[in-house]
Amino acid sequence: MSSFPYHGVDGHVGNTPLIRLRRLSELTGCEILGKAEFMNPGGSVKDRAALGIILDAEEKSLLKPGMTIVEGTAGNTGIGLTVIGAARGCRTVIIIPETQAPEKITLLRTLGADVRTVPAKPYSDPDNYNHIARRLAEENGWFWANQFDNTANRLGHYQTTGPEIWNQTDGQVTAFCASIGTGGTLGGTALYLKERNPAITTICADPYGAAMWSWFTNGHTDEDDGDSVAEGIGQSRVTANVADIPVDKAFRVDDQTALAILMQLLREEGVFLGLSSGINIGGAVRQALEGGPGQTIVTILCDSGHKYQSKLYNRLWLAEQGLNPEKPLESLF
């Protein structure tokens, strides 16, 4: 028998390729590169957070095979926890706002999660989905993943995403841009890259209605400047994964800009993505335009468009939101 070290799906999170976004790179004179996180086993960047949280909990004897993981999630972290948890002998209970794309809820149930949909409520409300998950953990003796304030999330990106980007660009990366859901992706990756080269510009791409642009720009979370249909990003508070991370600048990216980018990538480059990826790429383009040609800018392609076909890729739904899928890319910059 071969001695080659084969692994289950939990051994294949990360090491995703960098994809050159050709048209945007040509338009800006920069190399705009997307980390293809939709190639992870659970289909999103959140697989990294899920694996990091599970491994940390196992190391601390907080989680063992046969136990239950519970989490409040907009979908992708729940999918990651369910897939990786199953591979490591655990079941999952997922609390998800009922406003999330139905494809996510269906997929979670298909994967075997016990899915409980709840009304969408702000974090300040005791019936916010995160608080419900915490209470269920306390009442049942389950392990609460606590993705927002468990810094094992951020550590996972510090240990994997940052080093991968550094190595894949041969240390030539000049800027890194990511939106914030929990803050783990931007936080862990920025911490690593800044250690390797403090001159790397780290950027938060924030949808309208979220508070992180205000936090990094004005030092408070009081801005209320609109709304976004993006799922899984758009934080209203400074989580433990966000606190004290080195972010140089923040950009607001509107949904129409993000949508135009996504449609161009799908039509011309065969890349099929969710709206959070469009927000990220929009931030990378802003950095390209502000910093000028010659930069190497890396961003995160969070997940594929498969989970958003009933919304983002449904022309009737887009029309209801006032979004135009035919808007030319060049008109936005």
Automatic annotation (TrEMBL):
Residues 10-303 form the Tryptophan synthase beta chain-like PALP domain. The keyword Protein biosynthesis does not apply. Its EC number is 2.5.1.47. Keywords: Amino-acid biosynthesis, Pyridoxal phosphate, Transferase, Transit peptide. One of its GO terms (biological process) is cysteine biosynthetic process from serine. Transmembrane segments: none annotated. Its cofactor is pyridoxal 5'-phosphate. Pathway: Amino-acid biosynthesis. One of its GO terms (molecular function) is cysteine synthase activity. PANTHER family: CYSTATHIONINE BETA-SYNTHASE. This is Cysteine synthase A. It comes from Luteolibacter ambystomatis.
